[in-house]
Amino acid sequence: MNTSQSRRVALGTGLAGVLAVALGRTRIAAAATDPLDDGLTVLSDDGRFAQWVSLIHAGGMDREAAGRRPYTVFVPTDQAFARYPNGVRELLGQTGAASQEPFPDISRLVVVVRTHTLAGLHPFAEFAGKKTTLKSLDGTPIEVDATTPGSTSIVWSYRGGSGQATAKLVGEALVASNAIIYPVDQVDFHTY
Question: Is beta strand 71-76 parallel, antiparallel or unpaired with respect to 179-184?
């Protein structure tokens, strides 16, 4: 290992510790994700988020997902997307051989991602034991209900206030250099 690599490992180890304390998690849990990796890399490396990553790529949002601006995102797992087999294909403009849409609806893709995303880093300690309502990047409210230990729900309000979609957190948050990623068990294409 050369000097540069040694510094990166030392920096990464120190940063992991700082993030672990800031997030209220144990050092072991935080070290599972290299905090030097950006949000897009962390999402791409975790096999649960292939559908979400495909939306980011198709929507041209790679630079933002990997960029320096911090964000928090509630990402539906592939298992959540599997409940709606045509949902992603519809967003990507691939709803069958006879589809008249040769290109994805980029504006809708961006709305989907922005509806699930908050500006800034929001560690779980910010939500623990209470209900917190924040505004998504799309301007719609996201309510995080962490009043029941071990069962945290996320509620998105539909655009225009005509309804809501609810999801549950499924697992620990993933920490990246620019993002906190919460895996969730639901995606509702009617909210967009």
Answer: parallel
The model's pTM is 0.77
**Residue pLDDT, tens place only, 38-70:** 999 999 999 999 999 999 999 999 999 999 999
Domain boundaries, the chain: 1-36, 40-191
Question: What is the CATH number assigned to the segment(s) 40-191?
Answer: 2.30.180.10
Residue with tokens 């509702």: 188
